[in-house]
Write a structure and sequence with these properties.
Blueprint: E1 6-11, H1 16-31, E2 40-45, H2 51-65, H3 73-79, E3 82-86, H4 95-101, E4 107-112, H5 119-128, E5 137-140, H6 148-159, E6 167-169, H7 177-187, E7 201-209, H8 218-221, H9 225-243, H10 252-265, E8 274-280, H11 286-289, E9 300-305, E10 317-322, E11 329-336, E12 354-360, E13 364-372, E14 381-389, H12 390-394, H13 404-414, H14 423-442, E15 448-451, H15 458-465
Parallel strand pairs: 1-2, 1-4, 2-3, 4-5, 5-6, 7-10, 8-15
Antiparallel strand pairs: 7-11, 8-9, 9-10, 11-12, 12-13, 13-14
Helix pairs in contact: 1-2, 1-13, 6-14, 9-10, 9-14, 10-14
Bound molecules: 6-O-phosphono-beta-D-glucopyranose (BG6).
The site of 6-O-phosphono-beta-D-glucopyranose has 2 residues, from loops.
Pathway: Carbohydrate degradation; pentose phosphate pathway; D-ribulose 5-phosphate from D-glucose 6-phosphate (oxidative stage): step 1/3
Catalytic activity: D-glucose 6-phosphate + NADP(+) = 6-phospho-D-glucono-1,5-lactone + NADPH + H(+)
Keywords: Carbohydrate metabolism, Glucose metabolism, NADP, Oxidoreductase
């Protein structure tokens, strides 16, 4: 379904995110017939260039970062929607030119794909020059602050010029098809929800493992580390979607209210329940990639998280994420409790059911159930998978799944905030991670080294063994 006619301004249009995600994503939506041909996409950045030069730049970016057919006439049509205005976020030049380009009557959206230090300047000038109005939307990228105080300050800055329902804070994990599917699985089936609690679930494991390191973005990453870069946002969003109560409706505030309640119910993490790691190895060493030979920043973190509410009392959530691990895999594994009693004597002990939701790659679900081993040998139990991959079930191969950014940008134009973080949610998430980060920064310990290409530090295994549990293999 096409969205309404819009003018989208991308601040930071010559930057990496615009090249890799925003422009290719917009083109794919245009190809899919979702963007009206009357819409305008206006690049804004400091570089002095004209519309034609920006179109060339966008053409190269789209070809380099997506598998498009360069000769598809639609690509030229799409480039025709693009324009460019040179703007200095901290100066006054260019703003009037931008104002002149905005068409009355179209949906107006402003994408702040710039350093957060510029958010305030841009918001102020959009308002001061009368470019933004009450219906305009702004899109802001992570990192949204580096602690609660800075997130609060950013929220306050934006709030001077925009209402909360105009602000779209992106966490691209929420735009992933499989992440949205978590809500469908939970709330569109009767099968799971009655068992979705501490009475039946032993524990939950959330893994986001990456094979890439931080080379090339070491200067950003070294100031963040895995907790700020992945846990405070993506991992916590996944945790919320698994742990939240059913919202009364699939509506932005109803969903975000329930997520916020989960964040507020998180217990502080004990130092003994967290393991930090740093990858090391010949030719693939964090300390070289980060350009600080003494860095104590973690490229891996594993932690045990407890949620203090009726539903989850006694069921731990184990989170782990890291760079330079053995395989790229993101998944959520829910291990149910063992049956309370076995009627089968020595013919095999029933094992706990397990539901694994694979977020990427090979998106799908796997439910492990016990059955009788076929054959005449009597009642022998065996665990088998009920395996479903989206590609097989729906004929959707990875290439056809819209990228998270495509979905999210279209939601901005539609005015749907369900998959965006609300200001209070972001602040609450920082309020939980702040003490974890402070305790670490005050200490003198170094992260545990782990070999590049491994499953992470051994200490993370111990975190599980201590509780008589084990991590699923990363593969
Ligand atoms: C980003 C982080 O937000 O998410 C990166 O800054 C990380 O460090 C990336 O690599 C992971 O996203 P995806 O979509 O590749 O799983």
């Amino acid at each position: 379904i096409p969205v309404d006619d819009f003018d989208l301004v991308i601040f930071g249009a010559t930057g990496d995110l615009a090249h890799r995600k925003i422009l290719p994503g917009l083109y794919r939506r245009f190809e899919a017939g979702q963007i009206p041909a009357s819409s305008r996409i206006i690049g804004a950045a400091r570089t002095e260039q004209d519309d034609a030069a920006f179109r060339d730049e966008a053409f190269r970016a789209i070809c380099d970062h997506s598998s498009v057919d360069k000769d598809n006439p639609q690509l030229q049509e799409f480039l025709g929607l693009l324009g460019y205005v040179a703007i200095d976020a901290r100066g006054e030049g260019g703003w009037q030119a931008l104002k002149d380009r905005m068409r009355p009557g179209a949906v107006h959206a402003f994408y702040f794909s710039v350093a957060p230090a510029l958010f305030g300047d841009i918001a102020e000038r959009l308002a001061g020059h009368g470019i933004a109005h009450d219906d305009s939307r702004i899109v802001v990228e992570k990192p949204f602050g580096r602690d609660r105080a800075s997130a609060r300050a950013l929220n306050a800055t934006l709030a001077k010029h925009f209402h909360e329902d105009q602000i779209y804070r992106i966490d691209h994990y929420l735009g992933k098809e499989t992440v949205q599917n978590l809500m469908a699985v939970r709330f569109a089936n009767v099968l799971f929800e009655p068992l979705w609690n501490a009475q039946f679930i032993d524990h939950v494991q959330i893994t986001v493992a990456e094979t890439v390191g931080v080379a090339g973005r070491g200067s950003y990453y070294d100031k963040s580390g895995a907790i700020r870069d992945m846990v405070q946002n993506h991992m916590m969003q996944l945790l919320c979607l698994i742990a939240m109560e059913p919202p009364y409706h699939f509506d932005p505030d109803a969903v975000r209210d329930e997520k916020l309640k989960v964040i507020r119910a998180l217990q502080p993490v004990e130092p003994a329940d967290i393991v930090r790691g740093q990858y090391t190895g010949e030719g693939s060493d964090y300390l070289t990639d980060a350009e600080d030979p003494a860095s104590r920043t973690e490229s891996y973190v594993a932690m045990k998280v407890r949620i203090s509410n009726w539903r989850w009392q006694g069921t731990p959530f184990y989170l782990r994420t890291g760079k330079k691990l053995r395989a790229r895999t993101s998944e959520i594994a829910i291990t149910f409790k063992e049956p309370p009693h076995s009627i089968f004597d020595d013919s095999g002990v029933p094992k706990a059911n397990e539901l694994v939701i694979r977020l990427q790659p090979n998106e799908g679900m796997n439910l492990k159930v016990m059955i009788k081993e076929p054959g005449p040998g009597g009642m022998r139990l065996v665990q088998v998978p009920l395996d479903m991959s989206f590609a097989d079930a729906l004929g959707a191969d990875g290439a056809d799944m819209p990228d998270a950014y495509e979905r999210l940008i279209m939601d901005v134009i539609r005015g749907n905030q369900t998959l965006f973080m609300r200001g209070d949610e972001v602040e609450a998430a920082w309020a939980w991670t702040d003490p974890i980060i402070e305790a670490w920064e005050d200490g003198k310990r170094r992260p545990e080294p782990y070999d590049s290409g491994s499953s992470g530090p051994d200490e993370a295994l111990r975190l599980m063994h201590r509780d008589n549990r084990r991590w699923r293999e990363i593969r």
